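Ticket 4471: requesting a sanity check on a complex prediction with 1,3-dihydroxyacetonephosphate. Repro inputs:
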Amino acid sequence: MNKQALIETARQLMAGNKGLLAMDESTPTANKRFKEAGIPETEEFRRKYRELIVTTPGLGECISGAILFDETVKQSTADGKSFISVLNDAGIIPGIKLDEGAKDMPAFPGEKITEGLDGLRERLADYAKAGLKFAKWRAVISIADEIPTDGCIYANAHALARYATLCQEAGLVPIVEPEVIMDGDHTIEKCFEVTQRVLHIVFEVLISQRVYLEGMILKPNMILPGLDSTQTATVEQVADETVKCLLRCVPAAVPGVAFLSGGQNPEDASAHLNAMHVQYRNKLPWALTFSYARALQQPAMDYWQGKDENVATAQQLLYDRARLNNAARRGEYRA
Ligand code: 13P
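Returned structure tokens:
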């Protein structure tokens, strides 16, 4: 394992108040979002949309890395330039989603286990050859009566750890994403308790599987009430609870934490990140940034509607959101 190369990639991904752009929607997820936005659900429209994203002028000023889906790795702009080279030319490091989705976990009703370990070493060799420098694997943990169980959390933590060591062997920085999802009517206190339990188990297993902590990035959820909860939380409360939870669980050896947005609207996702930096500037052992999909892309996708004449304005909307999250990383975001 080339530890120095991993440290250097992680440093570049966390540098300069930038953050990550998750554009790694699987085909079913991309189609679902297209359907909601009234965009044709075809490979060509997915290619056009991803071209819109990667060719957004100035994106590299705000985005350090972009997470791609396998289909996108092989796609090119209309004039034949591969998306990977467009990103590299823009100073954006290309990464890849490696998991093959969360499936129902046998014997654990209501819980999911993420698949994709079979053949992963060989896939990683191909992706490393294609120039990808980092990767992502998402585990899904749900909150409801009696769940999550330790059986589900340990199984997902083990898969995350196996994926992470294979990435590091191949020279790619693993983003470890154990997402406690927002669905449900649980309180912010419950989200804190579950996220803390999940992160403790994840790091216990990462360490036992010999994941090199200095060469990985954690992608967690923020601490929030469930989407159907009647409880409201202030921006400051979300920032406080999230940082408190991370400080209890994430070793200082980990260079960076990059949040998922998880269904928060773009403004909330920026405001929460901003408040963490206002309240904890220079007091945290790791870099704290964003790795959003919906909270960066949604305004652009909604405006685009699949129409060429809307591309320039949609790109401006994407750039604006990326810029605003840069400001949030400096604690200077204004809605
Ligand atoms: P959201 O920001 O839309 O939650 O997506 C982030 C992500 O990469 C989920 O795996």
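Notes from triage: The mean pLDDT is 97. Leaving this open until the requester confirms.
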